[in-house]
């Protein structure tokens, strides 16, 4: 009996120590790293824009920059949420499927008579549900989210083809205020860009200033330590995948509002762009840290690369190659920085 009590005491003490360590050391470390990473990404973004603009001045016009921001927003919404999942040490490959399926469903129900505002909300709700399914399956099967989403990517995109009969969905009531407000422009900037910036602020606060955001980082830093500290790892995993899905649905609603139609070919390749934006923005693939603001700028960098290559007369296909090279560079730099920090800590004791 005394040995059992002693074991309980040791486990409680260990959990308390781990909780203290996560709450103190990890919070401080993440706070210091994020500012440095965001500054570096901002400088890189500024240099890219300045470089292209120096050769093609019209690239710096408001219309051109607003168009770049709009293109970035469509996959950028999901990149903001992907930061949470990457910070947990997980990865969702189904984002493109969620995006296209929610856009198509929204277009179909609105075409069939549902109010467009309710159709937009339905996109977000369905997206959250699809994302939540990913998390529930991962928990039930006890496998990483990336394995589940390898399958649901095809499943969700396949459902999109089925419900749309492999064709575009139009017939939208374009005179409705939903298309004027959500699909319109303000100060010559598309509404999707303003919403993208707003969601960056909201999710950055959620990631850095709330218990949920800290729990996500703690799980990514050390899953077992977080479990012993009392964090409901499975529940947080489902909430995080649902968040990724909800932002995919929001992107679908913004897309429907702007184009006034949906196509089953939407979102092809978004998996790469979403993950790339988060990684380029400074979110570690090993988990434990991340930057929502960095993902915002990472999405803009990818959009600038694509637009810049077109300005120089280079085929747009090269943007995929350049994005891949930048991902490799960002991951390599992150690994190098982490090794140097570990070596420095060992030296300083």
3D architecture notes:
The structure is a single chain. This protein is an all-alpha fold. The chain has a single domain (2-348), classed as ABC transporter involved in vitamin B12 uptake, BtuC (Orthogonal Bundle). It is 78% helix and 1% strand. The chain contains 13 helices and 2 strands; from the N terminus they run ααααααββααααααα. The chain has helices at 2-55, 62-87, 95-111, 116-141, 145-164, 177-181, 191-209, 211-221, 223-228, 233-259, 270-280, 292-311, 318-348, and strands at 185-186, 189-190. A two-stranded antiparallel ribbon has the order 1-2. α2 crosses α11 (270-280), α8 (211-221) crosses α10 and α12 runs antiparallel to α13 (318-348). The protein is globular, with a radius of gyration of 22 Å. The model is unreliable at 1-34 (pLDDT under 50).
Portion in helices: over 70%
Total of domains: 1
Return the CATH topology.
ABC transporter involved in vitamin B12 uptake, BtuC
Instruction: Encode the helix/strand succession as letters.
Output: HHHHHHEEHHHHHHH
Which sheet architecture does the biggest sheet show? 2 strands, antiparallel
Bin the strand percentage.
under 5%
- How large is the count of helical segments? 13
Q: Indicate the CATH class.
A: Mainly Alpha
Shape: globular
Q: In which order are the strands of the major sheet placed?
A: 1-2
Low-confidence stretches: 1-34
Assembly type: single chain
| Annotation, overall tally of beta strands | 2
- Rg, rounded, reads 22 Å
Distance between the termini: 39 Å
What is the CATH-assigned architecture?
Answer: Orthogonal Bundle
């Amino acid at each position: 009996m005394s040995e059992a009590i002693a074991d309980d005491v040791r486990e409680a003490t260990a959990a308390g120590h781990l909780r203290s360590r996560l709450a103190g050391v990890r919070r401080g470390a993440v706070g210091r790293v994020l500012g440095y990473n965001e500054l570096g990404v901002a400088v890189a973004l500024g240099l890219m824009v300045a470089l292209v603009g120096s050769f093609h001045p019209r690239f710096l016009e408001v219309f051109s920059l607003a168009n770049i921001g709009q293109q970035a927003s469509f996959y950028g919404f999901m990149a903001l949420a992907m930061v949470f999942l990457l910070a947990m040490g997980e990865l969702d490959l189904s984002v493109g499927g969620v995006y296209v399926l929610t856009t198509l469903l929204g277009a179909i129900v609105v075409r069939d008579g549902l109010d467009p505002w309710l159709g937009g909300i339905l996109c977000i709700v369905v997206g959250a549900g699809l994302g939540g399914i990913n998390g529930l399956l991962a928990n039930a099967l006890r496998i990483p989210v990336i394995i589940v989403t390898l399958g649901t990517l095809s499943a969700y995109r396949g459902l999109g083809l089925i419900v749309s009969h492999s064709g575009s969905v139009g017939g939208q009531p374009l005179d409705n205020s939903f298309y004027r407000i959500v699909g319109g422009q303000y100060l010559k900037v598309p509404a999707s860009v303003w919403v993208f910036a707003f969601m960056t602020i909201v999710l950055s606060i959620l990631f850095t200033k709330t218990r949920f955001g800290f729990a996500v980082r703690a799980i990514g830093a050390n899953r077992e330590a977080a479990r012993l500290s009392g964090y409901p790892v499975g529940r947080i995993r489902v909430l995080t995948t649902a968040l990724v899905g909800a932002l995919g649905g929001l992107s679908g609603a913004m897309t429907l509002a702007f184009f006034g139609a949906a196509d089953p070919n939407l979102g092809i390749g978004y998996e790469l762009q979403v993950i790339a934006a988060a990684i380029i923005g400074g979110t570690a693939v090993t988990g434990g840290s991340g930057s929502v603001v960095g993902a915002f700028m990472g999405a803009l960098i990818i959009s600038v690369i694509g637009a810049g290559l077109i300005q120089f007369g280079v085929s747009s296909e090269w943007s995929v190659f350049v994005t891949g090279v930048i991902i490799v560079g960002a991951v390599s730099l992150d690994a190098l920085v982490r090794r140097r920090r570990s070596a420095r800590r060992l030296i300083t004791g």
